[in-house]
Amino acid sequence: MSSAQPPRAVFAMDPVHLPLLFPAPLMARLQQVAEIDTTLVVQDFTAPEAASTLARTEVLITGWGCPHLDEDVLAAAPNLRTVLHAAGSVRSLVGEALWKGGLTVSSAVTGNALPVAEYTLAMILLAGKDAFAYRERFRETHAHPSTAETADTGNLGRRVGIIGASRVGRRLLELLLPFDLDVALYDPYVDADEAASLGVELLSLEDLLTRSDIVSLHAPDIPETHRMLDRDKLALIKDGGVVINTSRGALVDPDALADELVGGRLSAVLDVTEPEPLPAGSLLYTLPNVFLTPHIAGSLGNELARLGGIVVDELERVSAGLPLTHEVRHADLARVA
What we know:
It is a single chain. The chain is α/β, with parallel strands linked by helices. Helices cover about 35% and strands about 15% of the residues. The protein contains 13 helices and twelve strands. It has helices spanning about 20, 25-35, 50-55, 70-75, 95-100, 110-130, 130-140, 165-175, 190-200, 205-210, 230-235, 255-265, 305-320, and strands spanning about 10, 40, 60, 80-85, 105, 160-165, 180-185, 200, 215, 240-245, 265-270, 290. The strands form two sheets. Strands 8-7-6-9-10-11-12 form a seven-stranded parallel beta sheet, with helices on both faces. It has a five-stranded parallel beta sheet with strand order 2-1-3-4-5, sandwiched between helices. α2 (about 25-35) packs parallel to α13. The protein is elongated and about 70 Å long.
């Protein structure tokens, strides 16, 4: 595409997200580099108003709520060349038809990784101080803990095990560097040299679970990681250990985790669960050793503008005929989120 002729673009997502993804300054930048109707947000590719637009669309700007881009959609958009996804994973969005058609795809997943890493950092530090348990006790006793009760509390030398050197995992490792923590990593795609460059010790999954006080999950939800923390693996974590999951609930056996939590041997910080949300009667809502949040670690509120900014940057590159910075490649989908 040439900068002499702005590419024709269209939004495809749930329109509720549009003003947060593209506040006025970003929308103004977008309109400078693309021909786009900012009042049209497609949710149904078969709708009459979408048909004429798709026929001449070259760039599709997608987000949460965008329908799957199947063969029928691609047939209705013969000029489509690029998909810019203003969210994280494109796994459920694009299929084989898109890759066979030679389209390029970009994702704002890097921008979404930052708030997840920030949330996880906060949870690790709070877990190391046993803040969640002390809050519960303070509510009941209205008394400060004794020196004996706090003897094993604190973050100096606390052992933290990171499962997955994903974008979130790598950003989290960077954020953890200034703290006096002992950080280890498990990732089958990372070798010892790369782990050293990340500033962490590379361990097997079994060794990481056995040696860590806090275990944080950042692996993608793929067949190889399904239930990677099963009953036997959870049993390896030391008594009093903490499991943090901001990745996907499917990575952990929910029944096995629930048994460990109900029994009180482990604690957990869970931003994701399986199922999601948990049924109303789940004990995890009320257990004092479970800090449960409703999938808020990723981009929310004003953080969505970071994702929109990545998309506008990519659209400027498309308009200038430059390669995408955050391109998603078909070959990588087998091992990324």
